Amino acid sequence: MNYFPLFLNLKNQHCLVIGGGDVAARKIRLLVAAGGQITVVAPQLCEELAQAVVAGKLIYLAASFNESQLQNVRLVIAATNSEDVNRQVFEACEARGILINAVDDPASCRFITPAIVDRSPLMIAISTSGGVPVLARQLRSQLEALIPHGYGDLAQMASDFREEVKQTLTSVDARKQFWEKTLAGPIPDMVFAGQHDAARRALSAAIKTDANAPVQGAVYLVGCGPGNPDLLTFRALRLMQQADVVLYDNLVSAPILDMVRRDAERVYVGKKSNNHAVPQEEINQLLVRYAQAGKKVLRLKGGDPFIFGRGGEEIEELAEAGIAFEVVPGITSAAGASCYAGIPLTHRDYAQSVTFVTGHRRDGEVELDWPRLVSPTETVVVYMGVAQVEKICAQLIKHGRSPNTPAAMVEKATLSQQRIVVGTLSNLAQKVAELAIKPPALIIIGEVVNLHDKLKWRED
Question: Which pTM was predicted?
Answer without folding.
Answer: 0.72
